[in-house]
Design a protein that fits this description.
It is a single chain. This protein has one domain (3-79). Helix content is 79%, strand content 0%. It has helices spanning 3-29, 34-73, 76-79. Helix 1 (3-29) runs antiparallel to helix 2 (34-73). The radius of gyration is 24 Å and the shape is elongated. The two termini are 38 Å apart. The mean pLDDT is 89.
C-alpha cells in the first residue's frame, strides 16, 4: 500500500470515529446526564486505544513469526548455539 493510500485510510478512519463520537454522544445524551455522556465517550475512546494497541501487538507477532518461520523449521536453530561467533573488526 502506498503512503498516499495509507493516509487516505487513516483519514477515513479518523473521520468515521469523529462521526461515531458525535452520534454516540447525541444518542446517550437523550437519556443520561452530561457526566454520564462524558464517561461513556471516554470509555469508547479507551476501547479504541486498546483495540489499536492489540492490533499493533498482533501484527508485530505475526510479522515476527512470518519472517522467522524459515529458521524455526530447521533443527539447527534449536541444537546449535552462537558460542563460536565473535565480532569482526573491519
Amino acid at each position: 500500500m502506498s503512503t498516499f493510500g495509507l493516509q487516505r485510510l487513516v483519514g477515513f478512519c479518523l473521520c468515521w470515529y469523529v462521526v461515531f463520537v458525535v452520534v454516540y454522544a447525541a444518542v446517550v445524551s437523550v437519556s443520561h446526564s452530561r457526566l454520564v455522556v462524558f464517561d461513556k465517550l471516554v470509555a469508547a475512546t479507551l476501547y479504541l486505544v486498546g483495540a489499536i494497541i492489540a492490533l499493533a501487538l498482533g501484527s508485530t507477532i505475526i510479522y515476527v513469526f512470518h519472517e522467522g518461520w524459515q529458521a524455526l523449521r530447521h533443527v539447527n536453530f534449536y541444537t546449535h548455539d552462537m558460542a563460536g561467533v565473535s565480532p569482526r573488526h573491519l
